[in-house]
């Protein structure tokens, strides 16, 4: 992404760039905890009180307070990228296998659609995760979408981890709202006012961290913490909750990280819900690390988090489709391939459009 293009899209996606603040500095916000009273807690950490929220309405990370600095954004974007020439010379792109109409054969499937977007069939249920398939005013795809949207049928749930534009795209969701009006949306607290106008026929469930959604199937999906933040415009910082998902069927568990920096919450999740069979871990958009690490894990930090969780299979994501940071787009995968011991030899090499489980 060009620096000037980034600055025009500053409000919507990359951390720490607050141009205007909706905080009243004359009042010191007080901390409380919240949840959706309509949804259950099946498993919680010891002494769990709920999702942290300040009296000004902003949600908070469990262990690391959100910090915003326009000066840090400008320092990054106005300084030269030390890997700029290397990045320009690297023309490699992700391998893609077109899949046509999705017709499950009864076996579980996890198909990567690029960045943090997945098509999942598990326990007889079809799920879309963070579908961002169309170019928008900030993002341009650098990998081919493996499937034609109109060829997806009978989706039960659409999971939207948080409101950032590389995970929550208005045009894609409007398209899916028309194609899949019966699909239920599973997301975080206070996301309905954003999503419902785009998908007026779709029912939406909002969860706090460690709450499980009300599903008719035996499948259990729990919304879990991440170390991140949220914003779509200039005045709504952290007004919508962010998180990941822990998906459990009768014979398999899948952890989807969403966006997150490294922190103790990874072990907290596995201590509470168990070590995942498959961990979908963000590894890209991590340079410069001094700036990105509170919001995105590097491949090194993602590997550390995977080991903290005791995961069995490591599936990297959040790289190779959108150009969001300083590193060449396939550098995270290069590091993982060169350091298989970092994930205990459990790397599943990603391939767009191919079943990964």
Automatic annotation (TrEMBL):
Pfam families: Lactamase_B_2 (PF12706). One of its GO terms (cellular component) is cytoplasm. The keyword Lipid metabolism does not apply. This is Zn-dependent hydrolase. Residues 126-319 form the Metallo-beta-lactamase domain. One of its GO terms (molecular function) is hydrolase activity. Keywords: Hydrolase. InterPro entries: Metallo-B-lactamas, RibonucZ/Hydroxyglut_hydro.
């Amino acid at each position: 992404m060009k620096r000037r293009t980034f600055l025009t899209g500053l409000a919507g996606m990359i951390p720490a760039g607050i141009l205007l603040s909706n905080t009243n500095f004359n009042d010191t916000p007080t901390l409380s905890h919240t949840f959706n009273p309509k949804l259950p807690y099946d498993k919680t950490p010891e002494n769990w009180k709920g999702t942290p929220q300040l009296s000004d309405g902003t949600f908070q990370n469990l262990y690391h307070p959100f910090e915003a600095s326009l000066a840090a954004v400008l320092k990054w974007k106005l300084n030269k990228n030390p890997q700029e020439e290397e990045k320009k010379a690297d023309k490699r792109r992700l391998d893609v296998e077109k899949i046509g109409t999705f017709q499950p054969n009864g076996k579980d499937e996890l198909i990567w659609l690029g960045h943090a977007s997945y098509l999942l069939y598990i326990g007889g249920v079809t799920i879309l995760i963070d579908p961002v398939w169309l170019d928008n005013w900030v993002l341009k795809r650098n990998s081919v979408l493996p499937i034609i949207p109109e060829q997806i049928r009978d989706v039960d749930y659409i999971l939207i981890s948080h409101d950032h534009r590389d995970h929550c795209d208005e045009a894609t969701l409007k398209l899916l709202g028309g194609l899949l009006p019966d699909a239920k949306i599973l997301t975080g607290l206070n996301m309905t006012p954003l999503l419902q106008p785009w998908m007026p026929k779709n029912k939406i469930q909002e969860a706090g961290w460690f709450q499980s959604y009300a599903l008719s199937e035996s499948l259990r999906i729990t919304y879990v913490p991440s170390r991140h933040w949220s914003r779509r415009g200039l005045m709504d910082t952290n007004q919508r909750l962010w998180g990941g998902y822990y998906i459990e069927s009768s014979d398999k568990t899948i952890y989807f990280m969403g966006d997150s920096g490294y922190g103790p919450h990874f072990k907290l999740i596995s201590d509470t819900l168990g070590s995942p069979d498959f961990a979908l871990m963000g590894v890209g958009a991590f340079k410069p690390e001094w700036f990105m690490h509170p919001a995105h894990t590097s491949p090194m930090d993602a590997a550390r988090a995977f080991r903290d969780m005791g995961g069995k299979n490591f599936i990297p994501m959040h790289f190779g489709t959108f150009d969001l940071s300083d590193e060449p787009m396939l550098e995270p995968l290069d590091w993982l391939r060169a350091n298989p011991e970092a994930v205990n030899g459990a790397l599943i090499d990603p391939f767009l459009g191919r079943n990964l489980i």
